[in-house]
């Protein structure tokens, strides 16, 4: 277990999910990950922060009744200036959906999409630094952008967030990039070409650490979620792709301990 106290600009610093039935989804993740909750900023409506051992790990909010938006986990990348980041997103071919706006005293945010259409956030921290735990079960441990091709979208994140974008292992099949900040890998990009799922299109996938992928996937099904890809080997360890009761897709993973 590692306490995260500072997030470098460009590194994922928070993950948030907006849903229709907040109480139902709070119960699902409490049973799956052991989360407890405290109120968060209400700038976009009812919102709670999920806690593990009293430390903040993720956010859950309620969508306005008249907003029929896809329910999906959204990663936020750290920025020192949300307004400048918003301008850079626009100038590099992305779009802005929300903000820039203040989330009370917590910070300032932008929600946008890259040129491929994948939605992400940018967070300028004030009182709220972001995810406060790393590596323990129930925390987000990785983010992967699933898109059509990596070349142009990789350049977008390089310019907007200062990422170093490098091809993955040449022996690895497929179109893949690793995004790094100050030499540390923070996310990946996977280009699927024509194999990209049509209903979802380009999107960010959040990976959550669990102690046992098989047990966690079984629990998802028992709690009203769905197992989309059963447990099997992954790049970092055993993993399974699942969806919560409102259809938000995420990946369960048990990462191999550092040797």
Automatic annotation (TrEMBL):
It holds the Pfam family Glyoxalase_6. Residues 11-125, 139-255 form the VOC domain. InterPro entries: Anthracycline_SecMetBiosynth, Glyas_Bleomycin-R_OHBP_Dase, Glyoxalase_6, VOC_core. PROSITE patterns: VOC. It comes from the Bacteria. This is VOC family protein.
């Amino acid at each position: 277990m590692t306490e995260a106290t500072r997030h470098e600009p460009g590194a994922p610093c928070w993950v948030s999910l907006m849903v229709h039935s907040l109480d139902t989804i709070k119960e699902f993740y409490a049973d799956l990950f052991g989360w407890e909750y405290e109120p968060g900023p209400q700038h976009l409506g009812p919102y709670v922060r999920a806690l593990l051992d009293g430390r903040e790990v993720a956010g859950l909010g309620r969508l306005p009744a008249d907003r029929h938006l896809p329910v999906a986990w959204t990663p936020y990348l750290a920025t020192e200036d949300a307004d400048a980041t918003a301008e850079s997103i626009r100038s590099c071919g992305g779009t802005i959906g929300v903000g820039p706006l203040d989330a009370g005293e917590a910070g300032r945010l932008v929600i946008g999409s890259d040129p491929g259409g994948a939605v992400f956030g940018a967070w300028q921290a004030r009182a709220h630094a972001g995810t406060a735990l790393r590596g323990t079960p129930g925390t987000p441990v990785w983010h992967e952008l699933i898109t059509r091709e990596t070349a142009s979208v990789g350049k977008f994140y390089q310019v907007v967030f200062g990422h170093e974008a490098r091809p993955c292992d040449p022996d690895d099949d497929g179109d893949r990039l690793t995004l790094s900040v100050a030499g540390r890998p923070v996310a990946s990009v996977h280009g699927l070409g024509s194999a990209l799922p049509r209903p979802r299109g380009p999107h960010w996938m959040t990976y959550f650490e669990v102690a046992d992928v098989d047990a966690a996937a079984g629990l998802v099904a028992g709690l009203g979620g769905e197992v989309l890809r059963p447990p099997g080997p992954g790049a970092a360890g055993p993993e399974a792709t699942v969806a919560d009761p409102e259809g938000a897709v995420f990946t369960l993973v048990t990462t191999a301990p550092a040797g």
